[in-house]
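Ticket #4471: structure output looks truncated?

Reporter: J.K.
Steps to reproduce: submitted the chain below (513 residues) through the standard prediction queue, then opened the result file.
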Amino acid sequence: MNSLIFVLIPAVASIFGFVVGVIYRKFKAEKTIGVAEKEAEKIILNAKELAETRQKEVILEGKEEVHKFRTETERELSERRKDIQRQERRILQKEENLDKKMENLEDKEKTINARIQDVEKQYEEASKVKKNQFEILERISGLSVSQAKNYLLESLDEELTHEKAVKISAYEQQLKEESNKKASEILSLAIQRCASDHTAEATISVVPLPSDDMKGRIIGREGRNIRAIENLTGVDLIIDDTPESITLSAFDPVRREIARVALERLIADGRIHPAKIEEMVQRAKRDIEQEIKEEGQEAAMEAGVNNLHPALINLLGRLKYRTSYGQNVLKHSLEVAHLCGMIASELGLDTNLARRIGLLHDIGKALDHETEGSHIELGVNVAKKYKESEEVIHAIHSHHGDVEAKTPYAFILQAADTVSAARPGARRENLENYIKRLEKLESIVSSFDGIKGCYAIQAGREVRVMIKPECVNDEKMLPLAREICKKIESELDYPGQIKVNIIRESRAVDYAK
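Returned output as attached by the reporter:
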């Protein structure tokens, strides 16, 4: 029991202490809360006072802003009223000015109408006077109006013909002074730099023989050897009375060259029979084909032309065995290529393109024995086939005037081709064609009215025209010469140029008795 009391007393004491602590803390907290409430009331009162003060200040500032805005607005309204008043005054002034102008225009219109009426009256009077004058002139001259008009037109036509002839002459003289000098300088430089020494070549192949006995061996028993040669080469062998020589005839120069090489090798070998002939012809074909390729490559290298198609190189090599009026076409093409390059360099153009055009301009002549068409058409087709440029194709197409030249390179090619073909010793013409060309030239000139006679001189490089003085006067001579030149250019093929020399002579003959 005692022990229980000893245990309960500390527990009761602890509980009592706890309760007393709790009561003290509550009292302390209530006291602190009261103090805080008082401070909060003070803060709230101070805040209310500050808010009222700030409210009054904001109201005052707002009133000031309103007053300021009202003042500025009134000032702007005042300025706008003034602007509107000024604009109204301007509009009124413009209206007054417009009214005045309208009045002036009405006055001017009245004045113009009055003048028009006066002019119409004057025109009617002038028409009457003109009519009277025409009637008087008709009576005096004895010509009607239409007759007088025709007379005046004829007079004017004669005067205009004279003026036209004078202007054409002056213009041609100016062009000759300017262009001929420059062209002559360029061509002379090109010709001096490209001095060619080759002349016209023969087109007949002649094979020399060691003796006349060889003719019989070539003919063979019953002509079997000569038939074999002709069948394998496509060349006609002409064996006549000419001592120690055989003539080869064929339109294809390559085939003729193959036959010549094969025949010379057969003669050197001495064994002539059909089997040996076939062997020699095949060997000659291979050698000639290789030579053609090498000649084409050498020509392209000499002309400085690169990136040519192999087929074009072979065609260039074939030109070695092609002649035109006795002139070797490959040498002619090389000469034209050099001349084109030199002329282009003088003019500041592309020399490589110019040389390429000159080298390929006659490429169609390598095909004209095998394909139908002119060498120009064939050359254009070949150039298109092997992807040559438009400048090259156009120059080939226009170098003989078949189409109008439109590029500087086309004109350069025409000049270079003419220089190469027309220089002394370059080409030759057989007598029959030469006579036909001269007759055609004289017939073209004689077809014009007022021609008394014409004579082709200087190997067809000049034609002298005698005209009837009563039919053609001095003013009509220059236009007549131009017309003759145009007709010659359009109807006649010729190398170089032809000078048209017109001569007019008036003679007065009388006898003293």
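Triage note (M.O.): checked the attachment and the full token line is present. Residues 197-202 have pLDDT under 50 and may be disordered.
Status: closed, working as intended.
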